[in-house]
Write a structure and sequence with these properties.
The chain has 15 helices and 20 strands. It is of the alpha+beta class. The chain has two domains: 209 residues, no CATH class; 233 residues, no CATH class. The strands form seven sheets. It has a six-stranded antiparallel beta sheet. The protein has a four-stranded mixed beta sheet with strand order 3-18-19-20. A hairpin with a 3-residue loop joins strand 4 and strand 5.
Length: 490
Amino acid sequence: MGTETEYGISVKNARDQDPVAASTLVVNIYKDRGLKGITWDYDQENPLMDARGFMSEGETDVPDAENNSLINDILINGGRYYVDHAHPEYCTPECTNARDLVKYEKAGELILDLSRMAAEELLPANQEIIIYKNNSDYKGHSYGAHENYLMSREVPFQDIVDGLTPFLITRQIITGSGKIGAENGMEDTGYQMSQRADFFETEVGLSTMVARPIINTRDEPHADEKLYRRLHVIVGDSNMSEFSIYLKVGITSIVLQLIENGFVGDGFKLSEPVAAIKTVSRDLSCKNPLTLEDGRRRTPVEVQRAYLELAHKHVHSIDSSEVVQDILEKWEFVLDRLEADPMSLDRYLDWVVKKRLIDAYVQRRGLSLTDHQIRMLDLQYHDLRPNRGLYARLLKNGRIERILNQEEIIHAITNPPFDTRAYFRGMCLQKFPNEIHSASWNSMIFCIDGSSLDKILMDRPHFGTQDIVGDLLRDCTAAELVQAVLASNN
């Protein structure tokens, strides 16, 4: 599993806002000097392939060599850092469990902040870069926090649609990051759980920019396409809380394992999914029932609890790891609290933490939720600057529940996971930066002594681990490594 996070960016006191230039500056300045010549390999990317079995119309935008180098940074922790339209975007390396994924996503926040500080040194003294880990600019634009999960190609895509849609819609009660007001022409509201809910307009589709679907059909596996599918989930919020991220990816991966093994079916299908995603986001009590396709009425907590019960019944035969057990316990704890009193989770879930802050500010200042200061408070929660961001201040003051310690996160900036192919990618970048021409999720292209290019395919994400290639990487030169890997593949 892995996440891709697009960050909001602005330059304080700039005469004209140019988010593309600002994003390019922060991404390009972070690069290790030894990696500046390495580009991203776009050859095996195809965002127009649809999981329903056809190719969508359109063109893919592949940058030329110069722009490729400017907008892409391939990280020694195995991740990717690049400019996506008008945003800096950070992609974690591939991880095998939710705890590792939290660690690498949080490492991304530190990378963004280090970039910000370095980039500011090149700006006029009165200008300051502000980077937000949120999903909306309050001008009608939404940017994504996408999740990716490796699944078996054998699972019919309709099984994923049927089993996952009700789960994702009700998952907001745990994963929402909170938001003042409404957007995208939706009926106004004071406060809602999710920043993204208003922007979803269809049930199933390929787009991530317009007419956004609850279930995205992009079929770009970044792996052996005969064996695997990469499920691209675009319906979640960007979370600041480690606890929220941990549960978001943890419970989703569990539900996908249940779907893969045929334990979910279509028993939770909702009668109006697109309307329901907005209804759930606005129901801060978590008690208003949704109508299922068969006529039953269930609250979001009850729907989530039904998935949890399936997990308790079946998941130990699939995955009995300590992390999965911990996720099940925390999932149940959160659902119990949401059912009794959602505001009791004001150390755990982003939307609750933020609501508690806003409620207190409104009461102290005698303001209404429509006041401009409240919207700025909302935005400031997501500010990555440690001395300005409200989440960061709460964390510093011990008012937020943590999953990790800070040393783990700092370590993840420069060290890849040891148990996925990200280990091979990250360690090659560290050891052989002058012999690597380009890289992607599923390949490394070496150029030894400036001669011909050798491509090493990495189409199985669970290969390339420390156990498998650690000795080779320690003992071999780049030429010897390429020769050994190519020989083993033949």
